[in-house]
Specification:
By secondary structure, this protein is mainly alpha-helical. It has 10 helices and 2 strands. A two-stranded antiparallel ribbon has the order 1-2. A hairpin with a 5-residue loop joins strand 1 and strand 2. Helix 3 runs antiparallel to helix 5. The N and C termini lie far apart (about 50 Å).
Length: about 270
């Protein structure tokens, strides 16, 4: 009697785009839930800067000319820049440190690749995680600013999607940086880039204090555009000029994501 062999249908080669990125984000969100102290520190760090420099030094500085000639306190001027810093640090630290540890020590990605996950899914899942962390930290800081009476305009709500864009841009850049990190000492090089950018990207004083050539250099920094994107709506200045920093950050984020995806794919294939 003839026998019939039943063959399991072949796994479909097509799947909805993004269908397998959710598990990576979900796993990382569960880990973050048990590492809530790191999120708390991400909010506490800019608060300490705000209290020590924005308010402390601000007592000596007094009021300054804000955007559009408005008279604002020094703390109100510095606060939005510190919110941009919170989004930057949260996103960059999440991608660089997490990806480095999972690649070098935990072999997490090698285990993930035994499932239907692809390198692209892993990379985008990590970027989404960094975006989530940076957004939580920057939104938490904005809430503290509001409680301290440093938010004057309802336009400050536009800083929330602005923080998302800042987080995306720096998360993508952090993805690229993570693919170059070979040891813990390499993080010192990363700090040599981030710290000067934090100090000189109009965080604590206006662009006009620099000579012309230095102003042109500062305008190229992604944190400068991040501060511009958040500072203006928080201080009540809204207009089409916000499209300039938004467009810069979007273009920089997309370009960095494109490079980071390909570099991480090569690292995972080694």
């Amino acid at each position: 009697m003839a026998t019939t062999t039943l063959l399991a249908p072949a796994a479909p080669r097509w799947r909805p785009r993004g269908a397998l990125r959710g598990p990576v984000l979900g796993r990382n969100a569960l880990v973050l839930r048990h590492q809530w102290t790191s999120l708390l520190f991400g909010v506490l760090e800019p608060v300490l800067y705000l209290l020590s420099i924005g308010i402390g030094v601000g007592k000596m500085v007094g009021h300054i000319d804000g955007l559009g000639g408005a008279d604002v306190t020094y703390a109100e001027y510095v606060g939005p820049a510190l919110m941009a810093m919170a989004a930057m640090n949260g996103a960059v630290n999440s991608t660089t440190q997490a990806i480095f540890v999972k690649l070098k020590y935990e072999n997490t990605y090698q285990i993930m690749l035994t499932t239907p996950l692809m390198p692209r899914d892993i990379a985008l899942g990590e970027v989404c995680t960094a975006l989530l962390r940076g957004s939580v930290e920057s939104v938490g800081f904005l809430g503290i600013m509001a409680l301290m009476g440093m938010v004057r305009s309802p336009w400050a709500l536009l800083a929330l999607p602005g923080a998302l864009l800042v987080g995306f841009s720096f998360a993508a850049m952090g993805l690229v940086a993570a693919t170059y990190v070979r040891d813990w000492q390499d993080f010192q090089t990363l700090q040599l880039v981030m710290l000067p950018m934090f100090l000189f990207a109009t965080t604590f004083y206006p662009l006009q204090v620099y000579p012309g050539p230095i102003q042109a250099l500062v305008r190229c920094l992604p944190l400068y555009h991040s501060i511009d994107l958040l500072r203006e709506p928080i201080l009540g200045e809204v207009g089409l000029k916000l499209l300039i920093p938004a467009g810069y950050l979007l273009a920089a984020g997309v370009a960095a994501l494109w490079v980071g995806l390909r570099r991480l794919e090569r690292r995972l294939e080694d």
